[in-house]
Amino acid sequence: MKTSILVVEDDKAIKNFISTALDANSYNCLTAENGKQAILTTTSKRPDIIILDLGLPDIDGVEIVKKVRSWSICPIIVVSARSEDKDKIEALDAGADDYLTKPFSVDELLARIRVAIRKMNYDSKSNKETNIFVNGDLKIDYSAGCVFLNDEEVHLTPIEYRLLSVLAKNVGKVLTHSYILKETWGQSYENEVSSLRVFMATLRKKIEKDTNDPVYIQTHIGVGYRMIRVQEDRE
User: Per residue of the chain (235 residues), what is the pLDDT tens digit?
Assistant: First the structure.
């Protein structure tokens, strides 16, 4: 199956330049001209890689990185005319995987894409045995992005799913508020602890039988949260 790549670029000449290069190298190319189209295409088509310009007409590219990172780990390669270090740092801290400054050569772009594909293949191979997480009656199918409780699917929002995944991948460990915020939103939001509590409360309502006596998610007041290993705690 061809690797699908979404090109988010409002400059038609550059968009066509990149699209032509991708088509010539047997990639399945998708395009978007603004931020809204980019988010819609990302959620509906689930591209393997995103090539993203930061200077879009409606939404700044950094904000798109943050939005995508709230629910997806697909590689994001930024291509931008912004060459200042602070711009690169902001995009990478938001969750971008790579940063290419305009103008760039086709060969360099293709090389960055190959690096992203190698990383995806490595991560897929490394996680082959851990695609399914089971803890008591709770099951997470990472490959499908689905959560089940007592074999019935639980419908979570992207942020709720991300929160649950972060806790599950660190089961038994106490995670600080700042760590959870960074892993969920792509960077640290020191003033968003109250928002985290709201999302955690809605998540608990969906997976806990009794939110006053939680089985899966334990609160450590003033510190953070922990995913309880149900079998171990019951023993």
Answer: 789 999 999 999 999 999 999 999 999 999 999 999 999 999 999 999 999 999 999 999 999 999 998 888 888 999 999 888 788 878 887 888 888 888 889 999 999 898 888 777 755 555 555 688 889 999 999 888 899 999 999 998 888 898 999 999 888 888 888 888 888 876 555 557 888 888 899 999 999 989 889 999 999 888 889 898 885 444 3
224: CATH: 1.10.10.10
Run of H or E residues at 140: strand 138-141
53: domain range?
4-126
Q: What is the pTM of this model?
A: 0.56
- Same domain (yes/no): 120, 222: no
Same domain, residue pair 9 and 109 = yes
Runs of H (alpha helix) within the chain? 12-24, 35-45, 61-69, 85-94, 106-126, 158-168, 177-185, 193-207, 230-234
Closest CA to 96 of 75, 117, 123, 110: 75
Largest CA distance in the chain: 64
Last residue of a domain, one of 97, 126, 155: 126
Q: Which residues pair with 32 in a beta bridge?
A: 8
Q: Are residues 58 and 109 in the same domain?
A: yes
> In this structure, are 115 and 135 located in the same domain?
no
CA distances from 53 to 66, 139, 146, 185, 204 (A): 14, 37, 31, 20, 37
Whether 40 and 148 share a structural domain? no
Which of 99, 126, 153 represents a domain boundary (last residue)?
A: 126
